[in-house]
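Try this one yourself first.
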């Protein structure tokens, strides 16, 4: 497979992932982090880092809007729910294992 085709397939898979996450707004970031070690915020940070590495100015809010499909504050207000104590404890453990001290 040539590089261009691979890049196009990877981009299509990323768009499909974003579309899937948009359909599953009921799935909370904390649950994703506990199960997979990454969440929507991680995806947006990776997107921002990739843009910045290519000389494209992009801040955290712009990257999050791409991943969330709307400003993050709007998504949070509409769809984010309060996590229980057990979920928060699991997150603390998962976060330390997967991200370290990069919490934002």
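Now uncover the answer:
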């Amino acid at each position: 497979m040539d590089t261009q085709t691979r890049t196009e397939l990877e981009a299509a898979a990323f768009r499909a992932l974003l579309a899937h996450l948009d359909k599953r707004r009921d799935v909370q970031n904390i649950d994703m982090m506990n199960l997979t070690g990454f969440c929507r915020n991680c995806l947006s940070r990776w997107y921002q880092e990739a843009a910045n590495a290519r000389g494209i100015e992009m801040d955290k809010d712009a990257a999050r809007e791409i991943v969330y499909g709307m400003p993050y504050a709007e998504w949070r207000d509409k769809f984010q729910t309060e996590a229980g104590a057990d979920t928060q404890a699991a997150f603390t453990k998962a976060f330390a294992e997967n991200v370290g001290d990069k919490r934002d």
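Discussion: The chain has one domain: 3-91. The helical segments are 3-23, 29-36, 40-53, 60-68, 72-79, 85-98.
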